[in-house]
């Protein structure tokens, strides 16, 4: 994967993708499927919602870091299957043939099969909601993946891939954050 | 618009749509464009991020309610334009030809031109993040709109409409919330 500008972080979360969140704890890599994410400012902060029912959440609570990855739509079945098993009893990187690459600022790995990976430092966990507030430290993209569409979960077991694109950059010029 | 089951609320927010959030304050309707939303549980709670820079946020702070609407992709230009002006000096319902319909549980209006509108009661505002935590009270859908695609903001002035659909209901059966 190649490093991208930090300003790009927002553009991977704002569309509302299904994400794969990678963690490392007790010497083992793990990954979970999370749709409940949100951009929260123009300064690289993002949030996701989780709780103790997620095995990965314990790792995040313990070492305050993770990598948020954006899988292409072509990975849809794997993304669903990752969400159906727990890292407590499954080596998900092995089971699903994922490639863990070293990150620069965190011990959790990048997932090479994803379009982008955001190295994140956890700044706050807001209870009772389980809001994990994170600052993106580095952005990595894999530009060798042919399918550039991201995946959106409907929440009822169905998903959509990105379709028609609209370009309103001119129309929105006055409100676009710098560097985007 | 016709009323839908409350369990449907999740399925309108989880995909990560651009939303129009309607408010009513001081006897005037207003609406803002918000992409920073997130589902947070299976019990009808959702959240969006805002702050005092949004005129609508002051209305939400004051009367603790709003209506979160999901526009179809065919409304893309209007959605962008709504985000470029402020309700402080603009009657957005008038300017953009939106139809305000009465809601059942809040004073803020439904927006008839949207695919769905969620009546929301604000339960908490989490500072310093501006997380507006809401409980959905009623779900309304407009099934007469031909374009059923929702719109996703990339954050750089470009947007995507829903494209290819994947159905993994069988694959995810064990994890789907009841009633979905």
From TrEMBL, chains A, B:
Enumerate the GO terms in the molecular function aspect.
FMN binding; oxidoreductase activity, acting on the CH-NH group of donors, NAD or NADP as acceptor
Pfam families hit by this protein: Flavin_Reduct (PF01613)
Q: Which cofactor does it need?
A: FMN
Superkingdom in the source lineage:
Bacteria
Domain Flavin reductase like: residue ranges: 11-153
Q: Which SUPFAM superfamilies match?
A: FMN-binding split barrel
InterPro entries given in the database record: Flavin_Rdtase-like_dom (IPR002563), Flavoredoxin (IPR052174), Split_barrel_FMN-bd (IPR012349)
Q: Which UniProt keywords apply?
A: Flavoprotein
Family designation: Belongs to the flavoredoxin family.
The protein depicted here goes by the name: Flavin reductase family protein
């Amino acid at each position: 994967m190649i490093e991208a500008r930090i300003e790009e972080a927002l553009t991977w979360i704002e569309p509302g993708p299904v994400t794969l969140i990678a963690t490392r704890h007790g010497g083992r890599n793990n990954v979970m499927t999370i749709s409940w994410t949100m951009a929260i400012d123009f300064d690289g902060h993002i949030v996701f919602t989780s709780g103790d029912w997620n095995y990965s959440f314990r790792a995040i609570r313990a070492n305050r870091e993770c990598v948020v990855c954006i899988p292409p739509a072509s990975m849809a079945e794997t993304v669903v299957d990752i969400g159906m098993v727990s890292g407590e009893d499954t080596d998900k990187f092995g089971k699903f043939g994922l490639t863990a690459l070293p990150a620069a600022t965190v011990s959790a790995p990048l997932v090479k099969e994803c379009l982008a990976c955001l190295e994140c430092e956890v700044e706050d966990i807001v209870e009772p909601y389980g809001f994990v507030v994170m600052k993106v430290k580095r952005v990595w993209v894999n530009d060798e993946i042919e399918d550039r569409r991201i995946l959106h979960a409907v929440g009822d077991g169905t998903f959509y891939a990105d379709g028609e694109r609209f370009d309103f950059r001119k129309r929105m010029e006055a409100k676009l954050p710098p560097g985007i």
